[in-house]
Amino acid sequence: MLSASRITIKRAYSTAPKNLTIGLIPGDGIGREVIPAGKQVLEALPSSYGLAFNFIDLKAGFELFKKTGTALPEETVEALKSSCDGALFGAVSSPTVKVAGYSSPIVALRKKMGLYANVRPVKSVEGIGRPVDMVIVRENTEDLYIKEEKIFERDGQKVAEAIKRITESATRRISKMAYEIALQRQAVRDLGAESLHSKPSVTVVHKSNVLSVSDGLFRETCKKVYEENISKYGSIDYKEQIVDSMVYRMFREPEIFDVVVAPNLYGDILSDGAAALVGSLGVVPSANVGDSFAIGEPCHGSAPDIEGRGIANPIATIRSTALMLEFMGYSEPAAKIYSAVDANLKEDSIKTPDLGGKSSTQEVINDIIKRF
């Protein structure tokens, strides 16, 4: 049985064929070391699930940009659209200074594939980190991440400006997904799954006390969608939280949050911060989700400090692989992966250095697979 942290949204592609083609996009840095973990786990799933996997190796990333001048080749996008049932994305290096012609390939990929939601479950395992059982639903297509920036001079000084864009249409669809996830989590809890929560809730995060127009529209639209569908969503506790107090409360009392929905920037920051509650960014998964496709993506970055050392934590990728399967409609094999990961985490013997262990990436992969 799936635990209450798991998300299963019924979509048009939940009846996908049993022979599945998965695109593999390692990207940069340790992405090249952890994406093979997702592949190995899928290949090792018991045959009783009736799934067979084909894989397509695809390219994207900053390193590719430096070699070719292109961070996201059209061939990669076309292969995902025409040949793949789902995909895994590793990590991308993000230069801290402006590089002419470069923009993040994962941001571009989300837009080109219509992946408007970034869904990040954060759940503690007994004995590790703080008690937490939440899902952060991050709007994936707009806010400051539209990257419409400019720099100019005023009174002899440089001025940089960035456009923050919030639209009613994007907010409606992300809030609806958050409410649907809250209902699904409660349905799983009603079947007996353990959880910190007895009732579903959705917390809308904003800064409308300062950004009354942009964040005000986000807040107002989320509330309007709830009120317009009260017959369906009335069992959900609707809550709001200003983003700075949200950060404070998330670290002080993380157990009170069930589903959290936020604009792009706040969702990014909150989900990375929430990883500290469960031990490491190396264990936190995510899925980029649209109406017809899902890409699993670990929350960590390219981690150049440990690149090539064989000690990157593969668990975030493995969990992201399971999350991808869930959004494709395959909940049972996803549950098998989650259970194996949780069993690994509950033991102290085989862990990567970020969790205080001395094991290699491959040793953790092997230990998880043997638990299937």
Automatic annotation (TrEMBL):
Superkingdom classification of source: Eukaryota
Catalytic activity: (2R,3S)-homoisocitrate + NAD(+) = 2-oxoadipate + CO2 + NADH
InterPro entries (alphabetical): IsoCit/isopropylmalate_DH_CS, IsoPropMal-DH-like_dom
Ranges where the Isopropylmalate dehydrogenase-like domain occurs: 21-368
Names of the cofactor(s): Mg(2+)
PROSITE patterns: IDH_IMDH (PS00470)
Pathway(s) served: Amino-acid biosynthesis; L-lysine biosynthesis via AAA pathway; L-alpha-aminoadipate from 2-oxoglutarate: step 4/5
Family statement: Belongs to the isocitrate and isopropylmalate dehydrogenases family.
Protein name: homoisocitrate dehydrogenase
Protein source organism: Pichia californica
